[in-house]
Write a structure and sequence with these properties.
The protein is mainly α and about 160 residues long. It has 5 helices and no strands.
């Protein structure tokens, strides 16, 4: 059980670091520093790998423990397992699980904020582009007489595809 508690501690530390990175991402997005944002994302890669290894180890330990206890269940949660652990380890394990869940929820909230900031930034860029390059008007609707529609099209203007990208 001490190994499992250590894994929860390590997972909590990794999530705390993810939260620090998420705040750095927010600052980079607000300042429009895409190089800084890219750097933060590169720094997250080893954290993702570390978390994956910890999760695999946690799953292996739980499966091994369940096998030793003669429990055969699929999709079992920690909330279901904690009452089955020895009394002396139960409080520590539950405490670390709650801390980990708190960090995960913080990260989820921060990532949602960052996503919203990015979407708002993209909307602003699109609005700015639209303001700088107003849509072409076809001459046939301008009241300047009857001209062929092809004459109203200006090559080099922004297409619908460009504005969506």
């Amino acid at each position: 059980m001490q190994e499992l508690i250590k894994i929860f501690q390590a997972m909590t530390v990794v999530h705390e670091r993810f939260n620090e990175q998420a705040i750095r991402k927010e600052d980079a997005i607000k300042k429009g520093e895409m190089d800084s944002l890219e750097q933060v994302m590169k720094e997250e890669s080893p954290l993702i790998q570390q978390l994956g290894k910890l999760e695999n180890t946690r799953q292996h330990l739980i499966q091994q423990w369940m096998k030793e206890k003669g429990l055969v269940k699929e999709n079992v949660t920690m909330e279901q397992l904690i009452p089955l652990f020895p009394e002396k380890d139960r409080a520590d394990l539950q405490s670390w699980q709650e801390r980990l869940m708190t960090e995960i929820h913080k990260l989820k909230d921060q990532n949602e904020l960052n996503q919203q900031l990015l979407e708002d930034s993209l909307r602003f860029v699109n609005l700015s582009l639209d303001a700088m390059h107003p849509q072409n008007q076809f001459v046939s609707y301008s009241g300047e007489g009857e001209k062929d529609d092809d004459e109203g099209f200006e090559p080099g203007g922004r297409s619908l595809f460009d504005s969506k990208v």
